[in-house]
Amino acid sequence: MRVLLLAEHDNKRLGAETRNAAAAARLIGGPVHLLVAGLGCAAVAAEAAGVAGIDRVLLADDANYAHQLAEPLAKLIVAQSGGYDVFLAPATACGKSVMPRVAAALDIPQISEAVGVLAPDRFERPIYAGSIMQTVRVSTPRFAATMRPAAFAPAGAQPAAPVQNLLPLECPPSACFIDEHIPRAAGAQELTRAKIVVAGGRGAGAGGGFDAIRRFAFSIGAAIGASRAAVDAGLAGNDCQVGQSGKTIAPELYIACGISGAIQHISGIQQAKIIAAINKDPEAPIFRYADIGLVADIAEALPRLERLLAGKKPRA
Amino acid sequence: MKILVPIKRVLDHNVPARLTPRGTVQTDGCNHEINPFDAVALEAAVRIRERGLAREVVAVSVGTDEFVSSLRTALAVGADRGILVRTEAPLEPLAVAKIFHRLCLAEMPDLVIAGKQAIDDDAAQVGPMLAMLLGWAQATNVSHLEWVDGQIDAMCEVDRGTRRLRLSLPAVVTVDLRLNEPRYASLPNVMRAKKKPLEIKSLTDFGIDVSPKTEQIALREIDICRRATLVPDVDAFAAALLATGSLR
Ligand SMILES: Cc1cc2nc3c(=O)[nH]c(=O)nc-3n(C[C@H](O)[C@H](O)[C@H](O)COP(=O)(O)OP(=O)(O)OC[C@H]3O[C@@H](n4cnc5c(N)ncnc54)[C@H](O)[C@@H]3O)c2cc1C
After folding, report:
1. Which of A31, A306, B102, B219 lies in the 20 to 30 Å Cα band around B155?
2. Do B219 and A135 touch (CB under 8 A)?
3. ipTM over 0.90
4. In total, how many domains does chain B have?
5. Helix-strand-coil percent breakdown of chain B, rounded to 5?
6. B226 in a domain, yes or no?
7. Range of the domain at B137
8. Is the pLDDT of residue A79 over 70?
9. Is it the case that residue B178 has pLDDT exceeding 80?
10. Is the CB of residue B175 less than 8 Å from the CB of residue B44?
11. Taking CB atoms and an 8 Å limit, are B120 and A180 in contact across chains?
């Protein structure tokens, strides 16, 4: 099974999700070629060449790929498709926008958001907001798939693989990039990689509760998560949303503050090792899905918790 | 301008899905609804028409006879016409995209607004697949839409924040729940919807190969319950967090 994996990056650095997807790619087969398409991204290609399990890096460096829009990326992958059986991407916003286009163009099936590789043609993936696990087998020789980063341990390092340059293709009818807004504060932990996540829900809205969450998260070196209701209420950015229609994460410790525990939210944290919850309602469903629970008002509990855990940081 | 909105009928999102003793997803006797993301897509399309920017909104579905009631709901909410491509077979996203592709070739819409994912299979494939089959541009996970000189500025939610894309028509847009709050159908509109045209086509008339390319081997329920140990106060909570070993 010859695998072509699409790299996630921002033209400067390789996205960590690529390493998780590279590990998943190796479970499917090889050789694994990693496509880095962007503008001025030679440094990313060099970084990518050092990811364990990558046999070759394909570098397409051109203005057409500057913002990794789905239309030119899919066209590029389809043009390379003759040499491959499997087309992979991490299940990121970019990967999820590109791979269905590739699958449609090649008339091959796609497996979305796989969390397990049972065999090169057999995958596990959660459906119905993570309440049911589906085992699915691909019946065609070729297929596309997106892999959930949180489900695969990242690939390590290796001596650099060769980098091959690809000629850019003419851009198909495509959306045009206007601008982007990347709000993550300096020094803040990245949600998908953090060992500890402190998350707030709608219940954190009253009385500046979300500021208390931010302060507490910062003090213990945790990333900030949020429920959809909290994002809808403008308490946190959409990049913080955890759940069925947000991010899936697998931290060692997840501390849910003022989150009721809707299935759509729990869907994103099932792989957390420990889930702790603070909610003022003893009947809140979150207590069914958590390991450790405290019935309390977060406005009162968080300042004391911050003091009690002062100086503590995530285990290295 | 004409807008096409794909509609899927799914299990009610309020109830966790369960398996029958035979290992299939329990659907008998369960509430169904229009896929929440599709409801947002439909609302967006109806608002565009209400602003006078579109002439017609066509709601389209691929599925069983039961999808008729979902399309009637879509008509009551404001779609002008409905088309159901009838089939009993469970179809893969690519097959569904191929059918919508055919409908687009016949209907010639300027814009397709679709949900970003369906809450049952969570595949998130049909929108971008349809865009590719049509050779159109796309914007996915859209949480804000604006019209600028006949073009669309779409705010897309991406992993680290948001980005804005400008789309010339024709195009496919897939939407997030944050785009709008769908209205409910009023009783008079439900009555009126009964008179709106709803065409039922047979999948076999299309002559499209929809044979499955994947095979479902097994389903199993995921036990997500952990049943928390409740601690009495903040001090005990802090101690319990420290005892996990994640902090030091
Ligand atoms: C298709 C679809 C997709 C969805 N996707 C997602 C998703 O990806 N992620 C997601 O999170 N949700 C998602 N949702 C929404 C989900 O169903 C819930 O509505 C949402 O998770 C609720 O957020 P919440 O727990 O913050 O708010 P609420 O349900 O309103 O709960 C607030 C909680 O805070 C508690 N509280 C209030 N004040 C305090 C206080 N002072 N101290 C302590 N506790 C307090 C309350 O007791 C309550 O339990 C989705 C829904 C749909 C339909």
Report:
1. B102
2. yes
3. yes
4. 1
5. 30, 35, 40
6. no
7. 2-211
8. yes
9. yes
10. yes
11. no
